[in-house]
Amino acid sequence: MKRLIFCLIILAIGKDSIAQLESKTQTFFSPRYSFQMPAGDMADRFGVNSSLGLTFAIKKDSSLFYGINANYQFGSDVQEPGLIQNLLSSNNEIISVEGKPASILIQQRGFNFSADIGKFKRFKNSKTESGILYTFGTGFIQHNIRFEHQLDDVPQLDEEYEKGYDRLSNGLMLSQNIGWMHFSKRRGGDFYLGIELIEGITASRREFNFDTLTSDLGKSRLDILFGIKAGWIVPFYKKNLYH
């Protein structure tokens, strides 16, 4: 009899825990793409860029939202004043060890990660779990200039020498997001559309720039990114949200 009572208690506790999990939380991850436009000090160095990222989030029945994000940034519009000016020939070319003009691709690279908290407000009379999501986050951002020259041997931009030109910068990041989050009745139909504002309080981490013969080590910058983002939402568990 004692064993039977014990088993019934364990079963009741287990069912109650599962019921609470189903009714109170919704957990999901979301791969996302952002098209970003720079402002502030960052607009002096780079043009528009793209970002690919992944979000892991939990949405409570109380409409509280918690998430962590990681994003990889890339772009081809580099506008850094004086960049590699000391390496250019009279024809504005860089000469490889073979004695011919080298083919060099100059690109922006970077990443950021953050922890977010926010609020989800469901649309009234909505037949699906659709609504507006507001979030605020804080984290870390880093960006630099990358030189690609796989087809040519350019020792001036190899390994340690490249650090004198890459303008590596990083620092604290703040972010604000607002967007439309939609949970469909159909499997695979969940998505997010929104806008994002990122403020990076960054500083240069290189001691000396070889091309301009100057140092901006530790100089504070305000790097701003305005982004339009879209993502696919993949729930780990999808409860019955529709009534």
Description:
The protein has an 8-stranded antiparallel barrel. It has 243 residues and is mainly beta. It is 11% helix and 50% strand. The chain has a single domain (26-235), classed as Porin (Beta Barrel), CATH 2.40.160. It is built from 2 helices and 9 strands, in the order αβββββαββββ.
List keywords for this structure.
243 residues, mainly beta, eight-stranded antiparallel beta barrel, 50% strand, elongated
Low-pLDDT segments: 4-23
Count of spatially separate domains: 1
- Principal-axes shape call: elongated
Number of strands: 9
Query: What separation lies between the terminal Cα atoms?
Result: 42 Å
Name the structural class: mainly beta
- The top-level CATH class is Mainly Beta
Rg estimate, integer Å: 25 Å
- Which H/E pattern describes the elements? HEEEEEHEEEE
Task: Describe the secondary-structure layout.
Blueprint: H1 2-24, E1 25-40, E2 49-60, E3 64-75, E4 105-122, E5 129-148, H2 159-162, E6 169-183, E7 191-204, E8 220-232, E9 234-235
Antiparallel strand pairs: 1-2, 1-8, 1-9, 2-3, 3-4, 4-5, 5-6, 6-7, 7-8
